[in-house]
Description:
The protein is mainly alpha-helical and 96 residues long. It has one domain (2-95): ACP-like (Non-ribosomal Peptide Synthetase Peptidyl Carrier Protein, Chain A, Orthogonal Bundle). Helices cover 64% and strands 0% of the residues. The longest helix has 27 residues, at 2-28. The radius of gyration is 14 Å and the shape is globular.
Amino acid sequence: MIIQHNIIQDVTMASFDELKIKIRTFLSKYIHSNGFTDDEHLFQKGYINSLMAIELVLFVESEFSLKVENEDLDLNNFKSVNAIAQLVDRKTSRQG
């Protein structure tokens, strides 16, 4: 039973890591710096402006087949790679 739990947990972790890879890949097309961390505040660093924020929301909706609702449009949901991945994870978990 413990082994099964670990396997399920590993699959969940891999899926979360895959979310972050997709998000990082998208962002790195627009962010031309020496790199950014998964926890780095993308807005405070100036990597994302208002126009890019719209592109980011559209990317999240199309890439992950979900609807970003008005209540999801909170800076805390889009401030970092980890925050975006957590938003996607929450929204897709509710759908599934």
